[in-house]
């Protein structure tokens, strides 16, 4: 569906809001490039000189992995399958306690810059190199999808130029990462998180106003089965799969992923680092609740006329942009705010990834094998940041060409993250483990997780497990012009009314 399909398209005010978001992000990079112009070492550039405080770091931690996937996919998940993803809140709590008490003290007291330095100290240089290479592959693949997938969904609904948005956001992101280092990344994350929240709240407030309050939205969701939390025969996610599985996923992100660890070890004390994790927990819970309630709003508005089944959107990720263009079209600038929120999610994730990639390349692949001065390493850090920024934009282009093949590559994030989490956990809690056991465990874990991951692509779950909850189009009327109208009829207008409860395969983006 394109931007002129009945729900309005981007106006000048929307482009202005989007442009302001990009300009502010770029300005932060320029400011920190000027403020830190006297920095002499790569450590200053990559860790902010370890002078950061808890509040900005916590907000940056929250923004880093709350990507556009959260803004677009979580509400669509609630709309189609119910609000069970709210149980991720349990996994967030467990993850922050484990990270704070198990991983943080080790990384902080060793004063390392790259988490993979720990693997050499604990096991061997070969283990460190293998961990670094796996992280680089994992992150580049993931970042390409993070840039391209939301751009595609937003382009098809709002009519906003696809490659204009991809390249402009990619270039701005690369610019402020290269100019300002970690401090620029952290403070742009703070700004982008506020944009994400503003975008969510604009949709929620307008939906509540349109539907007559919070209670009708909750009631609609309950009647539609979206609040049925405990029936394992209806749900594709249960409390146990989300809370336990989610704990392992988020522990691999907060416990050992360079992009997150690099932030909290840049705090000026270990107590500030711990505090940043727990403030970040509050941010994660609030954004999770916003995304779940946005999904309930989506269902309440379209409970009688599902745009997905009616063919008004071609993929579930387009449902939220469709809602925005539908209910906010009379408020110039607000659709632009929501799109800015989605792209802020992408920017915060991509900037964290670029910064982390530059860090592990300099610390794990250059510093141990060269005799460069700190000044040279600092310039090399900036060069690597620029290189990885361009590479991630290139991966977005590759995602557009390979489509489903590269979409499947996002599962590599979990396939690689699991064995790496096991490796670090082995080193920290099993003092008797040696380097041979560590390498054997990492390689066998990779083989096993690849087998499971690739097998899932060839043998997807049966349709009954991928079937969404009931969705209907009985309230839709499609006029001969093809534009969506509601059930109030106009005399003489030719209309087509239909009712379906579809069985969709879950092969969407």
Summed up:
By secondary structure, this protein is mostly helical. The protein has helices at 12-35, 42-47, 54-64, 68-81, 88-110, 116-122, 125-158, 162-211, 214-223, 239-254, 258-264, 270-301, 319-327, 334-366, 374-402, 404-409, 412-429, 435-458, 463-466; strands spanning 477-479, 484-485, 495-496.
If you consult CATH, what is the topology?
Sodium/glucose cotransporter
- The string of secondary-structure elements, in order, is HHHHHHHHHHHHHHHHHHHEEE
What would you call the quaternary organization? single chain
Strand content: under 5%
Protein name: Solute carrier family 5 member 8
Organism: Takifugu rubripes
GO molecular function: organic acid:sodium symporter activity
Keywords: Cell membrane, Ion transport, Membrane, Sodium, Sodium transport, Transmembrane, Transmembrane helix, Transport
What does this structure look like?
This protein has 509 residues and is mostly helical. The protein has one domain: Sodium/glucose cotransporter (Up-down Bundle), CATH 1.20.1730.10. The protein has helices at residues 12-35, 42-47, 54-64, 68-81, 88-110, 116-122, 125-158, 162-211, 214-223, 239-254, 258-264, 270-301, 319-327, 334-366, 374-402, 404-409, 412-429, 435-458, 463-466, and strands at 477-479, 484-485, 495-496. The chain has a three-stranded antiparallel β-sheet with strand order 2-1-3, with no helix packed on it. Helix 3 crosses helix 12, helix 7 (125-158) runs antiparallel to helix 14 (334-366) and helix 7 crosses helix 15 (374-402). It is globular and about 70 Å long. The two termini are 15 Å apart.
């Amino acid at each position: 569906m394109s931007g002129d399909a009945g729900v309005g398209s981007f106006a000048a005010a929307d482009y202005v809001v989007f442009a302001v978001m990009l300009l502010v992000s770029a300005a932060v990079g320029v400011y920190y490039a000027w403020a830190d112009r006297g920095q002499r070492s790569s450590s200053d550039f990559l860790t902010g000189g370890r002078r950061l405080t808890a509040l900005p770091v916590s907000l940056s931690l929250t923004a880093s992995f709350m990507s556009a996937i959260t803004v677009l996919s979580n509400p669509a998940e609630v709309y189609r399958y119910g609000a069970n993803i709210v149980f991720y809140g349990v996994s967030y709590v467990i993850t922050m306690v484990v990270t704070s008490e198990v991983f943080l003290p080790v990384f902080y007291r060793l004063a390392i810059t790259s988490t993979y330095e720990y693997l050499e100290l604990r096991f061997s240089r070969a283990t460190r190199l293998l961990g670094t290479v796996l992280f680089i592959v994992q992150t580049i693949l993931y970042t390409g999808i993070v840039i391209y997938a939301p751009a595609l969904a937003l382009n098809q609904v709002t009519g906003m130029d696809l490659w204009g948005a991809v390249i402009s956001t990619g270039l701005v992101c690369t610019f402020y990462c290269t100019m300002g280092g970690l401090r620029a990344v952290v403070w742009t994350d703070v700004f982008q998180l506020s944009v994400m929240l503003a975008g969510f709240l604009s949709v929620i407030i307008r939906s509540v106003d349109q539907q007559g309050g919070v209670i009708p939205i909750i009631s609609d969701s309950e009647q539609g089965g979206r609040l049925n939390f405990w029936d394992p025969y209806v749900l594709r996610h249960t409390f146990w799969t989300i809370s336990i599985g989610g704990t392992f996923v988020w522990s691999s992100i907060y416990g050992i992923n360079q992009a997150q660890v690099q932030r909290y070890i840049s705090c000026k004390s270990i107590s500030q680092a711990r505090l940043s994790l727990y403030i970040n927990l509050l941010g994660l819970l609030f954004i999770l609740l916003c995304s779940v309630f946005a999904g309930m709003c989506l269902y309440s508005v379209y409970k009688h006329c599902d745009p997905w089944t009616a063919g008004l959107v071609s993929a579930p990720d387009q449902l939220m942009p469709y809602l925005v263009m539908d209910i906010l079209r009379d408020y110039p600038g607000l659709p632009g705010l929501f799109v800015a929120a989605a792209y802020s999610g992408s920017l915060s994730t991509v900037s964290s990834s670029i910064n982390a990639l530059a860090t592990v390349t300099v610390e794990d692949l250059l510093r141990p094998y060269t005799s460069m001065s700190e000044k040279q390493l600092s310039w090399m850090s900036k060069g690597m940041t620029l290189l990885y920024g361009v590479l991630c934009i290139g991966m977005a282009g590759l995602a557009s060409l390979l489509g489903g093949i590269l979409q499947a590559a996002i599962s590599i994030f979990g396939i690689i993250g699991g064995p790496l989490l096991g490796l670090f956990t082995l080193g920290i809690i099993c003092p008797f483990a040696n380097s041979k056991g560590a390498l054997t465990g990492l390689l066998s874990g990779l083989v096993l997780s690849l087998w499971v991951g690739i097998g899932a692509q060839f043998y997807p779950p049966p349709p009954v497990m991928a079937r969404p909850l009931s969705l209907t189009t009985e309230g839709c009327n499609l006029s001969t012009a093809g534009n969506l109208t509601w059930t109030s009829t106009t005399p003489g207008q030719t209309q087509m009314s239909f009712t379906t409860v579809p069985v969709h395969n879950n092969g969407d983006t």
